[in-house]
Write a structure and sequence with these properties.
This protein is an alpha/beta fold. Helix content is 53%, strand content 13%.
Length: 179
């Protein structure tokens, strides 16, 4: 059996992290999809609770470490834009004796903004609506473009997010899987 991996899909909101993670888990038996944003919405009163995000991430780290310890992969669709937070995920994988594959999904500015606004318009869940309003409060499009530039500095395997099929194929190549 090969070494378990934490497959961390990082990138700006709306880039396709969750979509790719769901597909990857569906096509790879035994892989745990750990979506921190979903965990956050399971905390009572999460919309008004400033500490919910941090506690959801802490809970996810414990879940990730425990699951990796079983020898199975975890796929994590999670925006992480700070070195200290990224190092927490690396440490969780290391604590389980697993690898950490940091994949950064990228797109040009026009595509990034189009996808974000399209996702916001089609929001069918509480989290997406909530996150969209947060980004609007933090500066909207300018904040997203600035975030994307900051993410460019992170060490990661880069996968350009285009259409779902091409992006998924790029992810498989980045993970060393045959396409």
């Amino acid at each position: 059996m090969s070494r378990a991996r934490l497959i961390h899909l990082n990138g700006p909101p709306g880039i396709g992290k969750s979509t790719l993670a769901r597909r990857y888990a569906a096509e790879h038996a035994g892989v745990l999809l750990c979506d921190v944003d979903v965990l956050r919405t399971m905390i009572g009163g999460w919309q008004e609770d400033d500490g919910a995000a941090g506690r959801a991430r802490t809970a996810a780290l414990a879940l990730i470490t425990g699951y990796l310890g079983t020898g199975h992969d975890v796929v994590l669709p999670q925006l992480v834009a700070r070195d200290d937070q990224l190092s927490r995920f690396t440490a969780a994988a290391r604590a389980a004796g697993a690898g950490h594959v940091h994949v950064m999904l990228t797109a040009d500015t026009e595509t990034l903004l189009r996808r974000f606004h399209g996702r916001a318009e089609a929001a069918r869940d509480e989290w997406t609506a909530y996150a969209t309003s947060l980004w609007a409060e933090q500066g909207g499009d300018d904040a997203l473009v600035s975030l994307s530039a900051r993410l460019d500095a992170f060490p990661a395997v880069r996968v350009t997010s285009t259409d779902p099929e091409t992006t998924y194929a790029g992810l498989l190549v980045a993970l060393g899987e045959h396409v």
